[in-house]
């Protein structure tokens, strides 16, 4: 017991705990990017991919397109970030997913910085780690090319800037930073972004009895700069495309998520389920509710101005989503670091206690660790995983690592015990990367689209003859992309570095993808099926 309780890993051995924390963050970073490229594009990833690829191929970073047709959706910043990643890492799925994973890591670093500055270094480490391993973020959205984690980083930077610079009484920096990041958020996801700064500034300054600050020159000046940036963006966009339709479509996306967008029964269901879903996806921090239901813990939170600010900012902003049936949990990712930080504080103050709450929390994780270790040892013998023959060599090693983590977790106490909970979750993500992502590459429905693109590319080769999709349907959303071809098209554009173009004419020479019903005697070079629609590739000279 000496090694664990009074020696190397005792909670009083600050230097070694910081070394352990550093090793965990290194392992965590590896887990974010290991096998990130393997799973086929799915859900909304192909849409993001097409827009970013066509930005590069058209050399136009203002107007977004899909299949070379104007796509009236969000502003272009996230697509520009994806395009930059493609330029850095090449035309591949890793490049598309890298910014989302990096955004999660950067948000965790921001959470650590704020926790360290306004509470303590140890608290900053613990709360940041628990944010970084939130289930929905860590095991799902950080593995995608989706917009939400990057957008949440920008909004979090804006909100945290308000408290950080208010404490320093540097008001030009406060409003400058808050409006700078929220303007970037607007250029990422549109009009709704400004609600965050309006609600957060209004509620916090009301709490501080300082509403007059809203009418100060620093605020007016920075707000006008933000408005000027938005106007300049729209002016530039209007020189390329129909500005009125673009603004109308963007506003329509915002309105769809409001209270007016659903019937009464939908609103009631949303009011009940939304907060429960929110608590579920921040697991394991959900369990910290065990430690907060005491009057003295509420008082401890009230004694910390930083935590009070986070509570105010969260409640004021979350209410908007709570009463908006169109809202989804992924729209609330900017609240995760706030909620996890607040929930972590009562736990942090009780780390030296050994009451039933701690025993229940750690007993649950001991059981999960044991099950996970057993699963790693069993997986090589399950027929479903036989398509990955290397697992019979690697999974016992993962099982051994999880058993060692269980032993260290059992033997250590207090703060150190939680670091091994984090270590366990990180190892689970590595197992997920090692098993689930290769399995998706071979068995998911998205794998077929990648295979179609590879087959078509083999036929076309390096030929730069244009590739068209023939349809007379109007493209409005990615769901209306002809024959749901956006998944296959994204792979084709990555491999050919040439745009797959939508057309309602077939007079120009080139390769065409037709619905087989419209072939009119043309000889197909390749046939495939998407969503029960039989398609064919033909060449017209």
UniProtKB/TrEMBL annotation:
Main location: membrane
Ranges where the Glycosyltransferase RgtA/B/C/D-like domain occurs: 73-230
InterPro entries xrefs: LipidA_mod_glycosyltrf_83, RgtA/B/C-like
GO molecular function, one term: transferase activity
UniProt keywords, alphabetically: Cell membrane, Glycosyltransferase, Membrane, Transferase, Transmembrane, Transmembrane helix
Pfam families membership: PMT_2
Transmembrane regions: 20-38, 94-113, 119-141, 148-166, 178-207, 214-236, 271-293, 305-324, 330-351, 363-387, 393-410
Recorded topology in the membrane: Multi-pass membrane protein
Top-level lineage group: Bacteria
Location of the protein in the cell: Cell membrane
PANTHER family: MANNOSYLTRANSFERASE YKCB-RELATED, UNDECAPRENYL PHOSPHATE-ALPHA-4-AMINO-4-DEOXY-L-ARABINOSE ARABINOSYL TRANSFERASE
Name listed for the protein in its UniProt record: 4-amino-4-deoxy-L-arabinose transferase
Organism: Zobellia uliginosa
């Amino acid at each position: 017991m000496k090694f664990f309780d009074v020696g190397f890993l005792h909670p009083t051995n600050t230097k070694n705990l910081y070394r352990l924390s550093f090793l965990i963050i290194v392992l965590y970073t590896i887990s974010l990017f290991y096998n990130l490229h393997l799973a086929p594009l799915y859900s909304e990833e192909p849409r993001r991919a097409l827009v970013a690829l066509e930005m590069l191929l058209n050399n136009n970073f203002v107007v977004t397109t899909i299949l070379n047709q104007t796509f009236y959706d969000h502003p272009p910043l996230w697509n520009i970030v994806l395009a930059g990643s493609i330029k850095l890492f090449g035309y591949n799925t890793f490049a598309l997913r890298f910014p989302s994973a990096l955004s999660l890591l950067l948000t965790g670093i921001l959470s650590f910085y704020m926790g360290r500055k306004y509470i303590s270094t140890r608290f900053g480490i613990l709360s940041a780690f628990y944010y970084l391993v939130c289930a929905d973020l860590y095991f799902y959205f950080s593995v995608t090319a989706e917009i939400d984690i990057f957008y949440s980083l920008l909004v979090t930077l804006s909100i945290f800037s308000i408290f950080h610079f208010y404490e320093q009484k540097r008001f030009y920096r406060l409003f400058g930073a808050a409006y700078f990041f929220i303007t970037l958020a607007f250029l990422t996801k549109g009009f709704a972004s400004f609600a965050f700064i309006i609600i957060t500034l209004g509620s916090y300054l009301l709490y501080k009895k300082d509403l007059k600050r809203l009418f100060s020159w620093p605020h007016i000046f920075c707000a006008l700069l933000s408005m000027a940036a938005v106007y300049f963006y729209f002016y530039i966009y209007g020189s390329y495309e129909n500005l009125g339709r673009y603004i109308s479509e963007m506003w329509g996306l915002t309105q769809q998520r409001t209270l007016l967008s659903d019937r009464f029964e939908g609103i009631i269901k949303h009011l009940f389920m939304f907060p429960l879903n929110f608590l579920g996806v921040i697991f394991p921090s959900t369990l910290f509710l065990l430690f907060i239901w005491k009057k003295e813990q509420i008082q401890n939170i009230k004694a910390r101005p930083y935590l009070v600010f986070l509570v105010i900012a969260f409640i004021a902003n979350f209410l908007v989503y709570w009463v908006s049936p169109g809202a989804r949990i992924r729209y609330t990712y900017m609240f995760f670091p706030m909620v996890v930080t607040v929930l972590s504080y009562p736990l942090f103050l009780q780390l030296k206690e050994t009451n039933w709450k701690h025993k229940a929390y750690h007993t649950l994780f001991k059981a999960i660790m044991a099950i996970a270790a057993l699963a790693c040892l069993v997986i090589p013998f399950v027929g479903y995983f036989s398509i990955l023959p290397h697992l019979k060599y690697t999974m016992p090693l993962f099982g051994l690592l999880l058993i060692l983590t269980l032993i260290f977790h059992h033997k250590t106490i207090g703060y150190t015990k939680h670091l091994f909970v984090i270590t366990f979750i990180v190892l689970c993500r590595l197992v997920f990367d090692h098993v689930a992502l290769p399995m998706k590459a071979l068995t998911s429905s998205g794998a077929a689209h990648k295979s179609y693109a590879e087959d078509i590319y083999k036929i076309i080769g390096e030929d730069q003859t244009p590739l068209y999709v023939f349809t007379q349907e109007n493209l409005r959303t990615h769901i209306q992309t002809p024959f749901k071809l956006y998944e296959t098209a994204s792979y084709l554009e990555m491999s050919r570095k040439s745009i797959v173009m939508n057309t309602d004419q077939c007079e120009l020479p080139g390769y065409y993808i037709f619905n087989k019903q419209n072939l009119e005697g043309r000889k197909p070079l390749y046939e495939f099926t998407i969503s029960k629609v039989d398609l064919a590739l033909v060449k017209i000279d």
